């Protein structure tokens, strides 16, 4: 089964990498836990051999997995296992690099020889087992430091946050110093969290905030909390399975080719298919792991969990029982993926959750599973009315309140429809079985038809947090706004002689013929860039947002490894996971690839995404580069002439310059830039909190990414959208003026 995917690669692709990043932020675990070392199985070795062979055959570069690529992959594997360079020592790394390099050199003349791949896989398992051993050693020292609690917060020293500035530790003294500084940093962070909680409580109660004070030995004491966090994280790392480790290692090898080629374990592939198809069978709750507990972070609208009514956001799930009378199994400290697997199940069956609410009360919540359409992850729309008042000012009103809130001195009005599209989704299972299924283009088409029926004057399509998805969907969506012509060009190999192939809008129907504004950011990737780039090349609409989009100009195919190997002839083929492999570069109708450079905006608006670090394609390790090719044939619209764009940009810039909200956003962006440039955090208490009071860069970054990953989609009215609505009104009027002039 092969599927084409043009989505952005999230940096938290594997479970283990997520855990490693969490570990990086809070130190280590507690006491050593006896466990048999992980060993590669015959199944693991078979998957590794077949994955690497398919990688060579299917990747766009057609490059053999030679010594250079192999060593590059091992470098990425070490980075994934120990991203903070705190646990493995310099001696460990030298030992394993030498062993791995020697194997690669010995096998250079018989590439992908099965025993050679086995030996390299065994080295990966050795690395991880050594990593766990080092975790245990560091834990003993970290626990000793926390028990002694001799941290001096008056000393003027720093904690280096950026691993690229560090080498692996070479001595016991260096290890101890790094652990001590990390513990101080974490303790200060916990103090800051406590202070923020007290401040929020005081504000809610209209009281003066109390100074956060820790009582040693209490659960909320930073020392106790940090020890518990270390202990929980160690347990989590000890639950790493062969599938988890295989996913990390093979993905690192694949990432040596490019950042978007990956291996997915069976569980990861199942989750991917659920996300891109927007449906699953379960209870309808977004869960998150925190300090050993599975926390309810969001409840999907219309889901079984919402209908049942007892499960609440921030509830801790501590036990799961199957059926109406099955035994409740303790899930505290269990891997999130395992908890999710126990909660999901066939529609019509019952799952019972033992939960602890925020007030400490414990209860059993029975929920009947159903098929869930993830509406919050689908396109959503809203309509606004911009009233032009007699004094020249503009008042914006939700369509539902338009008549009631219409200004008495309104002299003109303009209706603007807004569509938020969080991804280019497509129900592949339904499509592959001969059905139509749900898709982003059909949902957007429905909203556009509604806009037409309501006599909406202009449309805004919001792709700011859209990381991509289905390539055919990007073509179909573009076709709603153009008559015919090339949407995107794809080329199978950057090194081969094969000509580029144009993917065209298949019909002459235009669903939306009025003005269009496309909102983008540096998080708008791949399929989003295909759409925004085509609209820009055609001159069909205005692109507004960050200076450029993400910069991903490649196409991936999704292949179930067993299906490829056995050609779907075996009904009971072994489940070997899946591979997502880059098979093509894509180019806009103009022949330019957005790879690395992105799609530029006609009008730039300040927003925090423009300064976030490590989110653009150029920030990733070993990105591909594509040359410019010949342009395709496509008609041009006259809707983004220099005079129109200049008029809209000048009016918008004047409003932004006078806006207090945008001024605050710009100030926050500058503080973030300054903070991130330092690469280190002061550990003297007064300096730490003084810097934190200016801007907590890490918190801002984390909150923004959590908002994007876990937050509800939909059209949200704020100062940014208000400016976009005003800008859209200016655009509409500029086009009217241009038409009169012609």
Description:
- The chain is α+β, with helices and mostly antiparallel strands and 742 residues long.
- The protein folds into three domains: 37-257, no CATH class; 279-373, PDZ domain (Pdz3 Domain); 377-555 and 584-741, 2-enoyl-CoA Hydratase, Chain A, domain 1.
- 42% of the residues lie in helices and 17% in strands.
- The chain has 21 helices and 23 strands.
- Strands 13-12-14-15-18-19-22 form a seven-stranded mixed β-sheet, sandwiched between helices.
- A hairpin with a 6-residue loop joins strand 7 and strand 8.
- Helix 3 (67-81) packs antiparallel against helix 4 (90-106) and helix 5 (114-148) packs across helix 6 (172-204).
- The longest helix has 35 residues, at 114-148.
- It is globular and about 75 Å long.
- The two termini are 53 Å apart.
- The model is unreliable at 1-5, 8-33 and 211-219 (pLDDT under 50).
Give a quick precis of the structure.
By secondary structure, this protein is an alpha+beta fold.
Secondary structure: helix percent: 40-55%
Low-pLDDT windows of residues: 1-5, 8-33, 211-219
Q: Quickly count the domains.
A: 3
Distance between the termini: 53 Å
Computed CA radius of gyration, to the nearest angstrom: 27 Å
Indicate the CATH topology of the largest domain: 2-enoyl-CoA Hydratase, Chain A, domain 1
Tell the overall outline: globular
Q: Describe the biggest sheet? A: 7 strands, mixed
- CATH homology superfamily name of the largest domain: 2-enoyl-CoA Hydratase, Chain A, domain 1
Task: Indicate the proportion of strand residues.
Answer: 15-25%
Indicate the CATH architecture of the largest domain.
Alpha-Beta Complex
Mean pLDDT: 85
Report the strand count. Answer: 23
Given this structure, which CATH class of the largest domain is correct?
Alpha Beta
Query: What's the helix count?
Result: 21
């Amino acid at each position: 089964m092969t599927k084409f995917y043009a989505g952005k690669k999230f940096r938290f692709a594997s479970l283990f990498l997520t855990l490693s990043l969490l570990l990086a932020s809070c130190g280590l675990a507690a006491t050593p836990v006896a466990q048999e070392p992980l060993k590669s199985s015959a199944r693991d070795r078979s998957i590794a051999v077949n994955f690497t062979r398919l990688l060579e055959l299917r990747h766009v570069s057609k490059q053999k997995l030679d010594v250079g690529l192999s060593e590059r992959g091992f470098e990425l594997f070490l980075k994934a296992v120990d991203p903070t360079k705190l646990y493995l020592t310099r001696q460990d790394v030298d030992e394993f690099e030498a062993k791995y390099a020697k194997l690669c050199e010995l096998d250079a003349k018989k590439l992908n020889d099965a025993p050679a791949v086995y030996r390299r896989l065994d080295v990966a398992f050795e690395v991880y087992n050594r990593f766990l051993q080092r975790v245990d050693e560091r834990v003993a020292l970290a626990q000793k430091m926390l028990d002694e609690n001799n941290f001096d917060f008056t000393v003027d020293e720093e904690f280096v946050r950026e691993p690229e500035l560090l080498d692996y530790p070479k001595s016991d003294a260096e290890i101890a110093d790094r652990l001590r500084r990390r513990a101080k940093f974490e303790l200060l962070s916990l103090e800051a969290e406590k202070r923020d909680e007290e401040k929020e409580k005081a504000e809610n109660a209209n009281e003066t905030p109390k100074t956060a004070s820790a009582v040693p030995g209490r659960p909320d004491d930073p020392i106790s909390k940090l020890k518990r966090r270390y202990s929980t994280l160690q347990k989590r790392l000890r639950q790493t399975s062969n599938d988890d480790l295989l996913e990390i290692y093979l993905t690192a090898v694949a990432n040596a080719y490019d950042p978007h080629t990956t291996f997915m374990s069976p569980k990861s592939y199942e989750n991917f298919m659920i996300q891109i198809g927007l449906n699953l069978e379960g209870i309808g709750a977004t869960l998150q792991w925190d300090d050993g507990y599975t926390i309810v972070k969001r409840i999907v609208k219309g889901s079984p969990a919402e209908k049942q009514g007892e499960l609440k956001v921030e509830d801790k799930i501590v036990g799961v029982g199957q059926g109406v009378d099955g035994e409740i199994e303790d899930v505290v400290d269990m891997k999130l993926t395992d908890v999710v697997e126990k909660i999901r199940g066939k529609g019509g069956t019952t799952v019972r959750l033992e939960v602890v609410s925020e007030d400490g009360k414990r209860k059993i919540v029975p929920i009947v599973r159903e098929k869930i359409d993830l509406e919050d992850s689908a396109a959503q729309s809203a309509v606004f009315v911009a009233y032009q008042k007699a004094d020249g000012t503009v008042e914006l009103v939700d369509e539902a309140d338009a008549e009631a809130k219409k200004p008495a001195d309104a002299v003109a009005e303009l209706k603007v429809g807004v569509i938020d599209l969080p991804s280019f989704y497509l129900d592949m299972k339904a499509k592959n079985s001969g059905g139509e299924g749900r898709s982003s283009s059909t949902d957007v088409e429905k909203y556009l038809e509604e806009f037409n029926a309501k006599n909406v004057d202009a449309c805004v399509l919001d792709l700011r947090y859209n990381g991509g998805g289905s390539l055919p969907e990007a073509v179909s969506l573009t076709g709603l706004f153009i008559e015919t012509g090339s949407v995107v060009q794809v080329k199978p190999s950057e090194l081969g002689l094969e000509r580029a192939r144009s993917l065209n809008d298949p019909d002459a129907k235009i669903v939306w013929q009025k003005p269009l504004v496309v909102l983008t950011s540096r998080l708008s990737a791949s399929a989003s860039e295909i759409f925004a780039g085509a609209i820009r090349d055609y001159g069909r609409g205005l692109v507004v947002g960050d200076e450029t989009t993400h910069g991903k100009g490649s196409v991936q195919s999704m292949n179930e490894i067993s299906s490829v190997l056995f050609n779907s002839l075996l009904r009971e083929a072994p489940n070997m996971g899946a591979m997502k492999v880059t098979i093509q570069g894509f180019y806009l109708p103009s022949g330019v690839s957005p790879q690395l450079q992105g799609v530029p905006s006609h009008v730039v608006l300040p927003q925090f995404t423009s300064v976030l670090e490590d989110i653009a394609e150029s920030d990733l390790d070993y990105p591909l580069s594509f040359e410019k090719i010949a342009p395709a044939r496509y008609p041009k619209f006259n809707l983004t002439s220099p005079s129109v764009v200049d008029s809209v940009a000048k009016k918008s810039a004047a409003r932004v310059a006078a806006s207090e909200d945008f001024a605050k956003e710009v100030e926050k962006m500058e503080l973030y830039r300054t903070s991130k440039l330092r690469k280190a955090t002061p550990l003297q208490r007064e300096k730490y909190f003084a810097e934190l009071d200016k801007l907590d860069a890490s918190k801002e970054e984390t909150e923004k990414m959590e908002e994007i990953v876990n937050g509800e989609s939909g059209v949200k009215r704020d100062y940014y959208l208000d400016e976009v609505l005003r800008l859209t009104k200016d655009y509409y009027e500029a086009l009217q003026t241009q038409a009169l002039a012609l």
